[in-house]
Amino acid sequence: MTLALINLTKDFGEGPILQDVSVVFNPGEITCIIGPSGSGKSTLLRMLNRLEAPTRGHIMVDGEPLKETDKALQRHRARTGMVFQAFHLFNHLSVLDNCMLAPITVLKLNKTDAMQRAMGALEEVDMAGYAHRRPITLSGGQKQRVAIARALSMTPQVLLFDEPTSALDPEMVQEVLQAMRRVVAKKITMILVTHEMTFAAEIADRILFMDEGQIIEDRPGRALLDDPEHPRTRQFLKSWRGKT
Fold this sequence. Notes:
alpha/beta
């Protein structure tokens, strides 16, 4: 599935968060989006899953405008999984039930098939042993791995990650990144907003640098980090290099 934003602007009323952005994400590609806080990274990601409506411009899926009907949006979100910074798990449900819910309600799978799919996803992120626990009993890193499994349970064509490690301590960050490496091995299209530059250098086919609602630089993975072309990108990366 090819996703694209065409001349897209998003304005919440206090000036544009995204300004005339055009970008195409190709099947099987791993794209990391970096940039300072407030640059529009998360808003761009939410546009791709149509959790935010554009002020102007178009969201394209396989070369066609995304229709605004409830049915079309539901079908699109079923194919485009998203992992949030804040987990968004249901604490009144078990880990397994969290992962079974969407396959049953959206994909209309029967309980047996949904359970098989959910357990397979939990095994992929090394959380099958926690299937009958409630999320409230888990650490932050464990919750995020469950959130990844929940997204995988829908067998999406595209996975979006919105700063999935930013709320975690260093030990938990590493366990989540390891789970994400397993997802990379599955060759699913991934679009990842992150501040984990070393991880981005490791996995990305392509890195976008954003600032002030625009894509400033768009280059193959390591090339942008090793030899940025734009002065603003070079300025931003100085702080990362100072920590490595």
